[in-house]
TrEMBL record:
Catalyzes the removal of elemental sulfur and selenium atoms from L-cysteine, L-cystine, L-selenocysteine, and L-selenocystine to produce L-alanine. It catalyses: (sulfur carrier)-H + L-cysteine = (sulfur carrier)-SH + L-alanine. Residues 24-394 form the Aminotransferase class V domain. Belongs to the class-V pyridoxal-phosphate-dependent aminotransferase family. Csd subfamily. Its EC number is 2.8.1.7. Its cofactor is pyridoxal 5'-phosphate. It holds the Pfam family Aminotran_5. Keywords: Pyridoxal phosphate, Transferase. SUPFAM superfamilies: PLP-dependent transferases (SSF53383). GO terms for molecular function: cysteine desulfurase activity; pyridoxal phosphate binding. This is Cysteine desulfurase. One of its GO terms (biological process) is cysteine metabolic process.
Length: 406
């Protein structure tokens, strides 16, 4: 298990107060706080080592290039990829999924071809596929979760037909905390020669991930949820899928030669990384992933399972609180409403006065909100630095909200 007191000291922001109260940060599902090692790495990269990468032979460029490129290997180790050449670095999951949509799906999908999605998907794993629906006549096939928020692999596979060209599925719902068995889906889909894209934005933060064991074709992560900087991330792409892809954006780094009448593209993965990248962001992400792996993903998962169980117990004691989703094995994400007239934004505002940070709204999950019949929820999302005292503070804050709005 984690030494949670030591871990909390690694995150400077947790020592501050908000509205005169100790900060209780329960919005990591949107963006996680950063440990000191990441902050120090970013500061050093800008203050002592900064230069553009890949283009220079001078000392600073060499240092920046080596540190930037080392993150590719770090991401590969973090995801259990066989080679760092399977990793395309980018600004995060949204860019990664758009790369697949434009670079892989668009050239090979025709009108009537199908993409299977769950209703639980984040907009980042919906809107790029709507582009294909609007522009090429691709059909989106939706799979709904069970009443408890569970989404069984068999249910996803039942939606597959001979026109299915891709399954695009979340590994963990950012609203319900539901964990999807993407390995079972990937194994069965491979037998049917249907590629699988996994949105790992939430799951990779909380669970050990091994893309080789999962067997998916694409696995996207985003750095700012992984205790790293915003504007950082990467996507694992199976080699045979990468060989099928055309470049998404054109510019520097992704080319080998440019002439008036032709261009010669760089080898993968570089051919999918155009322009000056987020150098320091990616270096910071490497530090964040090293920090997580140093703690141990199994230890992080065990700590969060204990915290999730405790939060489930405490919140279930509030009979006026409606928590959405209680699937077995769910992650530490709790979306809820309070019976009566309290809007999610009002609840969030009251909690903020107590120093408690939660998210209110649709959480970039419009189809799921429609499915649940809700306009908005509050969401408390836990991370490796949270403890039981944070759960208790949330419960106390919700009881105050109930008293105010009842």
């Amino acid at each position: 298990m984690l030494d949670i007191d030591t871990v909390r000291r690694d995150f400077p922001i947790l020592s501050r107060q908000v509205n005169g109260k100790p900060l209780v940060y329960l919005d990591s599902g949107a963006s996680a706080q950063k440990p000191r090692i990441v902050l120090d790495t970013i500061q050093r990269a800008y203050a002592e080592e900064y230069s553009n990468v890949h283009r220079g032979l001078h000392t600073l460029s060499t240092i920046s290039t080596e540190k930037y490129e080392s993150t590719r290997g770090t991401i590969a180790r973090f995801l259990g990829a066989a080679s760092e050449d399977n990793i395309v670095m980018n600004t995060g999951t949204t860019e990664g999924i758009n790369l697949v949509a434009y670079g892989w799906a668009m050239p090979r999908m025709q009108a009537g071809d199908e993409i299977v999605l769950s209703v639980m998907e984040h907009h980042a794993n919906i809107v790029p596929w709507h582009f294909l629906r609007e522009r090429q006549g691709v059909k989106l096939v939706w799979v709904e979760p069970d009443p408890d928020g569970s989404l069984l692999g068999d249910k996803v596979l039942e939606a597959v037909t001979d026109r299915t060209r891709l399954i695009a599925i979340t590994h963990m719902s950012n609203v319900l905390g539901t964990v999807v068995d993407v390995a079972a889906i990937s194994r069965a889909a491979r037998e049917r020669e249907v590629p699988v894209l996994v949105d790992g934005s939430q799951a990779a933060v909380h669970l050990p991930v091994n893309v080789e064991e999962i067997g998916c074709d694409f696995y996207a992560i985003t750095g700012h949820k992984l205790y790293g900087p915003s504007g950082s991330g990467g996507i694992y792409i199976r080699p045979e899928r990468m060989a099928e892809m055309r470049p998404f954006m054109g510019g520097g780094d992704m080319i080998r030669e440019v002439h008036r009448d032709r261009v010669e593209y760089n080898d993968a993965p570089m051919r999918f990384e155009a322009g000056t990248p987020g150098i320091v962001q990616q270096i910071g992400l490497g530090a964040a992933l090293d920090y997580m792996m140093g703690l141990g993903m199994e230890a992080i998962a065990a700590h969060e399972r204990d915290l999730t169980a405790y939060a489930t117990e405490r919140l279930s004691g509030l009979n006026w609180l409606n928590v959405q989703g209680n699937a077995p094995g769910k992650g530490g994400i709790f979306s809820f409403t309070i019976e009566g007239q309290a809007h999610a934004h009002d609840i969030s505002t009251v909690l903020d006065k107590k120093g408690i940070a939660v998210r209110a709204g649709q959480h970039c999950a419009g189809p799921l909100m429609d499915h649940l019949g809700l306009s908005a929820t509050c969401r408390a999302s836990f991370a490796l630095y949270n403890n039981r005292a944070d759960v208790d503070a949330l419960v106390d804050g919700l009881e105050l909200c109930h008293d105010l709005f009842s």
